[in-house]
């Protein structure tokens, strides 16, 4: 906590002032996160100061939607990197949200554990955004975006979290997700300069070659780049108490007969949480995409048969923990797409379920299975 407080003070996050008349300070709390490696080795505990936002502050929404990271971009970048023999690096921005400038006038109580005689009757006026504030992600991203544009980078129109820069027929590319950045390209000089620029602009930690990104394990060898979520699956099986379950051969029964009235009602919140975890897991597991698409259709009113279908997906995953995506060198970046549909397969409304998959450079980068909106 002391290191975190030093970082906050160094960044001029706040100033100690008397509370002006008519102003109401918000509270704050410490949140501790256990840091682990993909193999569950303990790396330490990271304390983060979160602001307790009141309803009045939380309802001040932004006019533009927050830019979100797209896994399709990451997978496409992986295929380009393996085909063009690019190195991939990762950097972590420390206290990312603290770099965002706060526009509104906000006062906060002294953080727990740091009250003293000098702070008696005082409050903190915030100049920087804090974790727990709805505006914080936007404030941080806008600051990061301006820094990249000044550096001469172009923001992608297809994915606003991706920035690239062409120079002398070479390219450097960066993708950012909150405080995690992935950097690659064939312009090794610009990549090195970019890493130096980020270190000067923000407080960052160079993590070297990409190994672990947003719960996804990345390993590179002579055969190519392999993406998996083995640890994520193990954590999910432990959470559901299914670590010792009997594996299933397939993620869903062949010619399944699921419908909206299949069984008795179950805990909707638990069902939605499990399906949400499976949706994220499908980032590296296209083999469960169709099954997850089916169970996600019953999020609003899940029944016992739907929960059994979710458990079957978990049983299937138990039998193939280490599967993932292998990106190999094919020698080109040709784009190929395939699509199909089951033609009126739904028992509830006779609507069809469509699916597609797209390849770049011979590697799978995008796929989806979704029920059609019309008959």
From TrEMBL:
Transmembrane domains' residue ranges: none
Species of provenance: Triticum urartu
InterPro entries linked to this entry: DNA/RNA_pol_sf, RVT_2
PANTHER family: GAG-POL-RELATED RETROTRANSPOSON, INTEGRASE CATALYTIC DOMAIN-CONTAINING PROTEIN
Signal peptide: none
Residue ranges annotated for the Reverse transcriptase Ty1/copia-type domain, each copy included: 11-253
Protein name in UniProt: Reverse transcriptase Ty1/copia-type domain-containing protein
CDD domains: RNase_HI_RT_Ty1 (cd09272)
Pfam families assigned: RVT_2
């Amino acid at each position: 906590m002391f290191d975190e407080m030093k970082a906050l003070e160094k960044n001029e996050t706040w100033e100690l002032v008397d509370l002006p008349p008519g102003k109401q300070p918000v509270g704050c709390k410490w949140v501790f996160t256990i840091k682990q490696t993909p193999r569950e080795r303990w790396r330490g505990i990271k304390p983060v100061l979160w602001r307790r936002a009141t309803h009045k502050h939380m309802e001040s929404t932004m006019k533009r939607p927050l830019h979100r990271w797209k896994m399709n971009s990451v997978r496409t970048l992986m295929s380009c990197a393996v085909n063009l023999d690019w190195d991939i690096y990762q950097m972590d921005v420390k206290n990312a949200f603290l770099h965002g400038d706060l526009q509104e006038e906000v006062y906060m109580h002294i953080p727990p554990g740091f009250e003293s005689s000098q702070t008696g009757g005082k409050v903190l006026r915030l100049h920087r955004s804090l974790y727990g504030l709805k505006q914080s992600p936007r404030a941080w991203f806008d600051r990061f975006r301006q820094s990249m544009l000044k550096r001469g980078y172009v923001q992608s129109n297809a994915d606003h979290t991706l920035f690239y820069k062409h120079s002398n027929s070479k390219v450097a590319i960066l993708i950012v997700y909150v405080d995690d950045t992935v950097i690659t390209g064939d312009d090794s000089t610009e990549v090195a300069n970019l890493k130096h620029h980020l270190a000067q602009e923000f407080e960052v930690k160079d993590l070297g070659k990409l190994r672990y990104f947003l719960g996804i394990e990345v390993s590179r060898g002579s055969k190519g780049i392999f993406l998996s979520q083995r640890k994520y699956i193990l954590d999910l099986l432990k959470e559901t108490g299914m670590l010792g379950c009997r594996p299933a051969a397939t993620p869903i029964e062949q010619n399944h007969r699921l419908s909206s009235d299949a069984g008795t009602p179950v805990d909707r919140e638990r069902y939605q949480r499990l399906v949400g975890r499976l949706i994220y897991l499908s980032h590296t597991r296209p083999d469960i995409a169709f099954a997850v698409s089916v169970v996600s259709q019953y999020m609003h009113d899940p029944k016992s048969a739907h929960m059994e279908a979710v458990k079957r997906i978990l049983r299937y995953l138990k039998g193939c923990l280490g599967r993932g995506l292998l990106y190999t060198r094919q020698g080109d970046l040709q784009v190929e797409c395939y699509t199909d549909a089951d033609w009126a397969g739904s028992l509830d409304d006779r609507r069809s379920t469509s699916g597609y998959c797209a390849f770049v450079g011979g590697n799978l980068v995008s796929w989806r299975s979704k029920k059609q909106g019309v008959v």
